Amino acid sequence: MRMKRRIHPSLTILTGALAASLLFACGFADGGQGVIPPEKRKLMSSVIYVDATGVTHSLAEHLGKVVVVDVWATWCPPCRKSLPEIAVLQAKEDLDYAVLAISVDQGGWADVRPFLNANAQLGLKAVLPADAKALKPFGAIDGIPTTFILDRHGRLRERWSGYYEGRAEKALQEALKGS
User: Fold this and answer.
1) How much is the pTM?
2) How many Cα neighbours within 13 Å face the side chain of 48?
3) Which domains, and CATH codes, for the chain?
């Protein structure tokens, strides 16, 4: 029996028309912009998310910190490869930075909780978008995982799609030096 893959409505769903689009949607091609020049960085403080206890938060709560936002789904193979690195960064969080693993699974916590329980060794703390428009300030998210780095002022500093070993930590360290 094949399981149906579900994507949260806030994501742009790619069609299967082009093989390149399919590869991109699975995170195999870098569709992000990379480092964004300071004069073009947009404020992301209006992005809202919900934690495992049901409490709504916004990125504005993290002003003064560099923030790593990783958008992922339980069914996504490149996401599963990236999550151990995201979990390690979360475990090392301090006063200088925060890490948010935002799941876009359509089933919400019904999909995410079993995944987290089955992968408890990760120690990953996941959150969900507060609603279908919650991630809109980031712009189009055409593939997952997509990672965003915010500077200490809550502005989008860097973004990329796909999993690249060590890239999140490297980008975090650069942002900590440059913010």
Assistant:
1) 0.81
2) 10
3) 19-178 (3.40.30.10)
